[in-house]
User: Which sequence fits this backbone?
């Protein structure tokens, strides 16, 4: 791609006059801020830039879920023709008065402002109950007549109430989906418009449609934020496809009302799916699209807007030139080292207003939606960077950098002082054992008592002694990739672990009092039905023997940046041609000669692991989970037990 001069969207400002507003667009999670804006705001402030941040995802939900917001939702639900009425909308309209009178109290309870309300909630006569409450009938029966007794017993009052109010909010989310916007979800808003969509046509049509209630609310919130902070540069960070539609709606509103404000777009979705961006219509909404680590591109963009850098010296940026074509502009400059990115700050985000939800009752799984976690990275990138399913060729994996443990703990102490919260989620791709050991020792040396959890590789370096050390430093939970749970496929994946090794490592974590979650995969190239059955038997035994407490099966997706996508023949598959278009390019379809119906396999795997996570049917024959005929497992029924004994 050639380097060209571009016409800036705004006239260069005077030196030092740039005011930056970083925006979290809907939707990611409601219990804690997504960390990208905290990192960027902290970094920019460390360089003397005026920087603020807002979470429009949280603000959107807190605006819609008010008595006045529900009035508007009811109007939309009542306007539906009879054929479009759903159980969710019918239940909502029938019980509307109770919803309206309880919504503020529910939000206050989930924000931790009204804990005594739990006594009323658990009596099941305060809140309206919609279709989501029907799921209570599917929970394991403890013969007490109490559908939640198996999970909470006679105690657990607050958690029981939190789960019931989460079902209440999920009912309302279903009403928004059915009555206002079929694309709405709490964590994947409009995902199908962006994920691996080579054409921008669908997104363009959605953005050109008359704004609905959610759109209008979001646009109003965006303009209020601009009015409050008066930015000259707005940063939209979209980590996932489920943020893209809302992010561009925000940009659309700002562009129409404030055409002099420069809008830059980046984040995980951009870094993976828009690396070959050629769609000029994207720039009807944003001025600049940057990829990979955001610090250096932002410094270059700010210098350009302040007249201190030429137009042809932006860093890793897509722009639209005067001819209407998309061009790639970059200058070869080093990234800001991980040790110099500064301490993230949550200043400006309304931390007391986040909602602590309890969707899944599993003690490990709940951590993703329950509690206010300060998110931090131990290192940049991945120290292993060999897994064949991973985007190992991209910067967020391939550029591995660490920082001294003393610096990391300095950051932790600063964050605790700012937020008052001592819970940390280390969001590394795979936190290095050596760095975790040094971090644990430094935490213990300073007697800094925090709670933390993070993602690792289940490698043999995690000895029982190291697991005990991590627990002593505050580690409460660990997640890691077991993937296909097949030694043959783990070797093909270049995962660097075996199933028996994973069993020993995860059991060491469990014995140290650390909860363990396993990321699992199905549909990897050449995976047979026998492989799938055997993998589920391995997973059953891992649960049965107390090695893991939580897990999730996801379908393998081949990406163009992974070793499988770059060299499919080495994995026994052939790629299908990518569709034409200049927008997203990431997932690529492939032909697997095994011809396995992985969707049928996936239904069984998800059903089984849901039950395993709740301690249910751990002794059942593995074949009983499948609704199609499958072979008997070739894995000995007590293999994991014997491996642990041999340890």
Assistant:
């Amino acid at each position: 791609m050639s380097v060209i001069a571009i016409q800036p969207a705004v006239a260069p400002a005077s030196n030092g006059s740039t005011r930056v507003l970083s925006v979290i667009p809907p939707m990611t999670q409601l219990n804690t801020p997504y960390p990208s804006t905290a990192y960027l705001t902290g970094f920019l402030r460390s360089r003397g830039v005026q920087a603020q941040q807002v979470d429009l995802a949280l603000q959107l939900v807190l605006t819609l879920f008010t008595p006045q917001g529900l009035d508007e939702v009811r109007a939309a639900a009542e306007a539906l023709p009879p054929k479009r009425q759903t159980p969710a909308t019918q239940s909502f309209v029938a019980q509307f008065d109770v919803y309206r009178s309880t919504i503020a109290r529910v939000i206050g309870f989930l924000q931790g402002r009204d804990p005594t309300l739990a006594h009323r909630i658990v009596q099941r006569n305060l809140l309206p109950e919609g279709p989501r409450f029907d799921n209570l009938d599917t929970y394991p029966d403890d013969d007490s007549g109490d559908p939640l007794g198996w999970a909470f017993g006679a105690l657990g009052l607050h958690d029981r109430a939190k789960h019931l109010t989460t079902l209440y909010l999920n009912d309302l989310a279903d009403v928004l989906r059915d009555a206002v916007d079929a694309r709405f979800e709490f964590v994947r808003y409009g995902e199908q418009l962006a994920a691996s969509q080579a054409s921008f046509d669908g997104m363009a049509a959605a953005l050109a449609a008359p704004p609905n209630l959610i759109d209008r609310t979001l646009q109003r919130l965006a303009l209020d934020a601009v009015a409050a902070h008066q930015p000259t540069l707005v940063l939209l960070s979209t980590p996932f496809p489920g943020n893209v539609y809302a992010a561009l709606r925000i940009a659309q509103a700002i562009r129409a009302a404030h055409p002099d404000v420069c809008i830059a777009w980046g984040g995980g979705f951009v870094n993976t799916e828009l690396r070959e961006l050629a769609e000029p219509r994207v720039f009807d909404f944003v001025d600049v699209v940057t990829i990979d680590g955001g610090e250096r591109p932002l410094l270059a963009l700010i210098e350009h807007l302040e007249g201190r850098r030429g137009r042809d010296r932006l860093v890793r940026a897509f722009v639209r030139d005067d001819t209407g074509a998309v061009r790639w502009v970059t200058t070869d400059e080093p990234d800001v080292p991980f040790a110099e990115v500064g301490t993230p700050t949550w200043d400006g985000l309304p931390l007391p207003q986040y909602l602590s939800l309890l969707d899944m009752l599993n003690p490990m799984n709940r951590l993703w939606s329950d509690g206010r976690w300060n998110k931090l990275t131990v290192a940049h990138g991945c120290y292993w960077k060999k897994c064949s399913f991973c985007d190992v060729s991209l910067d967020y994996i391939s550029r591995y950098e660490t920082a001294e443990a003393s610096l990391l703990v300095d950051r932790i102490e600063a964050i605790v002082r700012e937020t008052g919260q001592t819970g940390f989620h280390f969001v590394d791709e795979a936190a290095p054992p050596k760095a975790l050991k040094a971090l644990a020792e430094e935490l213990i040396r300073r007697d800094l008592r925090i709670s933390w959890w993070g993602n690792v590789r289940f490698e043999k370096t995690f000895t029982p002694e190291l697991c005990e050390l991590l627990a002593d430093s505050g580690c409460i939970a660990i997640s890691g990739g077991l993937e296909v749970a097949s030694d043959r496929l783990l070797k093909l994946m270049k995962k660097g672990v075996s199933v028996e090794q994973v069993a020993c490592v995860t059991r060491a974590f469990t014995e140290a009092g650390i909860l363990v979650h396993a990321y699992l995969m199905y549909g990897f190239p050449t995976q047979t039905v026998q492989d799938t059955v055997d993998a589920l038997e391995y997973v059953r035994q891992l649960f049965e023997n107390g090695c893991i407490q939580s897990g999730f099966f996801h379908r393998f997706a081949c990406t163009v940046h992974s070793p499988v996508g770059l060299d499919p023949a080495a994995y026994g598959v052939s790629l299908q041609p990518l569709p034409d278009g200049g927008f997203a390019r990431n997932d690529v379809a492939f032909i697997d000669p095994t011809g396995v119906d992985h969707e049928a396999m996936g239904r069984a795997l998800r059903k089984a692991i849901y039950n395993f996570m709740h301690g249910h049917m751990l002794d059942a024959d593995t074949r009983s989970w499948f609704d199609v005929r499958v072979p008997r497992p070739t894995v000995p029924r007590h293999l994991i037990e014997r491996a642990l004994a041999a340890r």
The mean pLDDT is 92. DSSP finds 23 helices and 17 strands in the chain. The longest helix spans residues 157-179. The first strand starts at residue 19 and ends at 24.
